[in-house]
Write a structure and sequence with these properties.
By secondary structure, the chain is of the alpha+beta class. It folds into two domains: 254 residues, Aminopeptidase (3-Layer(aba) Sandwich); 213 residues, Alpha-Beta Plaits, CATH 3.30.70. The protein contains eleven helices and 21 strands. Strands 9, 10, 11, 12, 13, 14, 15, 16 and 17 form a nine-stranded antiparallel β-sheet that branches. A six-stranded mixed β-sheet has the order 1-2-6-3-7-19. The two termini are 38 Å apart. The mean pLDDT is 95.
């Protein structure tokens, strides 16, 4: 008897428990891929195991659905391996220590990999001959949690589906209908130095809430890098100083919480410097009073230094100009009535470094509309090249645009309403998803992402709702029946 015995749908949870007993971290998916292939062989289903690790299983249509459009069901094989500090779990060899409490399945002191229940749902469907459905292409990608490597390598020439139901969503009753594409804008500005002396001050901008540069950009929190640029511009209008060092942010995909710089000032300018910084802190606290509670902007006297390397006046002017003219934050909200309140395009100046002979900035550029993504990137390029810098686009990945005439959305919306008595939430996400990459490889594909309720995803507190899985199972069966 397994830990999940007695739960419904029984076969879904039986397969899910099998999966939880097989280590399946990103890069370690041999066991779980073999499980899927063995399942296909046992059920006499054609399958492909790609060199990159993806597994595709082909399920014939049930009687009466032979002429229906093929449907792709998609999830992924790997999980994020997070555990609490006191856990001794070895993700390379140990089964997950599953437990059940009321309506929740969890793993003791580790992440659960709850999105793996999509595998259970798909395989349970594949082996049943009493469920009405079109022909199915079950696509389980490898290394989704490692930069989506599997889906990037997916050979779509073997696929014929024109409809895709992605089961990797973790919010019940929420249908995702679009996602943002993105790229990284890499800015390099050559800098020059001169020898200067003066009282050295470290200036700190800190305490902002930060967050994911896609999913949290709509919260309109402060970007410490941009705010530091504002402070440098203000200081340059009030007093003479020399810039020695400047840095901020840790990851291009994270909104910077902190930034700091080091400057040199003359003795007579010290009181003015401290006054300007204090006044600026009050200004920023007022501007962000609705959504930032811990802003701190201050300066520390490090003592007198002679013959320090500091930026030339012209170099500093170009640097400050760039920081004060670069677009940042939400650039456009969605105009589709089905997705109100969704960010359509944004920028995040995530990393800032004064590094030897160069000043470096890295920006996350996102949009669910490809043309807008490149337009924003062009803005960065024009500004950078105008002042003598160099700009590169790196890590470009596609988005998935909302399809207003989606037949799949109409069917899923109708079924959900009939089963639940209320309409689902229809929205998009301002971040990259596997569906964006599949959409770019199969233009015109009708895609919706749904899933069961999973909380605290990718943490040791991850929880999968049992009743939510059962509702999703019944919902998916009803949707497939309607896709005749």
């Amino acid at each position: 008897m397994g830990i999940l015995s007695g739960l419904e749908p029984a076969r879904v949870f039986e397969i899910f428990e099998d999966i939880c007993n097989i280590p399946h971290a990103s890069g370690n998916m041999e066991g779980i891929a073999e499980y899927l292939c063995s399942f296909a062989e046992k059920n006499k289903l054609r399958y492909i195991r790609e060199q990159c690790g993806n597994v595709i299983i082909f399920v014939p249509a049930s009687e009466g659905y032979e002429d229906s459009d093929i449907v792709m069901l998609q999830g992924h094989l790997d999980m994020v391996c997070e555990k609490s500090a006191d856990s001794r779990h070895n993700f390379e060899r140990d089964p997950l220590p599953l437990a059940v409490m009321e309506d929740m399945i969890f793993s003791k002191k580790t992440a659960l990999g709850g999105n793996g229940v999509a595998i259970g749902i798909c395989l349970a469907l594949a082996e049943r001959d009493d469920i009405a459905h079109p022909a199915l292409e079950i696509v389980m990608t490898a290394n989704k949690e490692n930069d989506m490597l599997g889906v990037k390598a997916l050979d779509v020439s073997v696929l014929n589906a024109r409809t895709l139901i992605n089961l990797d969503n973790n919010r019940e009753g929420v249908f995702i209908t679009s996602c943002a594409g993105g790229l990284k804008g890499h800015i390099q500005l050559p800098v020059r130095y001169r020898r200067r002396s003066g009282e050295k001050y470290n200036i700190v901008v800190s305490g902002f809430m930060g967050g994911h540069s896609g999913k949290d950009i709509h919260k309109y929190g402060g970007n410490a890098n941009i705010i530091m640029g504002r402070l440098l511009h203000l200081l340059s209008s009030k007093l003479d100083f020399d810039l020695v060092n400047l840095r901020g942010g840790l990851m291009v995909s994270a909104i910077p919480r902190d930034a700091d710089c080091t400057i040199l000032v003359s003795d007579e300018n010290v009181p003015k410097l401290e006054t300007v910084v204090e006044e600026f802190e009050r200004t920023i606290r007022n501007e962000y009073r609705a959504n930032e509670n811990n802003v701190q902007i201050y300066c520390n006297d490090l003592g007198y230094f002679e013959e320090e390397e500091a930026l030339t006046v012209k170099t500093m002017e170009r640097l400050v100009f760039l920081l004060n003219t670069l677009p940042d934050g939400v650039q456009k909200m969605s105009v589709d009535r089905e997705t109100p309140g969704l960010v359509e395009a944004s920028l995040n100046i995530g990393i800032m470094r004064l590094n030897g002979a160069e000043f470096l900035l890295e920006a996350a550029v996102r949009s669910s509309v490809a043309s807008e993504k490149y337009y924003l990137s062009d803005k960065l390029r024009y500004l950078t090249e105008t002042i003598g810098g160099h700009y590169d686009e790196l890590g470009d990945y596609p988005g998935w645009e909302f399809k207003s005439d989606s037949r799949l959305l109409k069917v899923m919306n109708s079924v959900y309403l009939a089963q639940n008595g209320s309409a689902p939430v229809i929205t998009g996400v301002h971040a990259g998803l596997e569906t964006g990459i599949i959409s770019s490889k199969l233009p015109g594909l009708d895609i919706i992402s749904c899933g069961p309720e999973i909380t605290n995803v990718r943490t040791p507190n991850e929880r999968l709702s049992i009743s939510s899985v059962e509702r999703l199972w019944k919902f998916l069966i009803a949707v497939l029946k309607e896709l005749k």
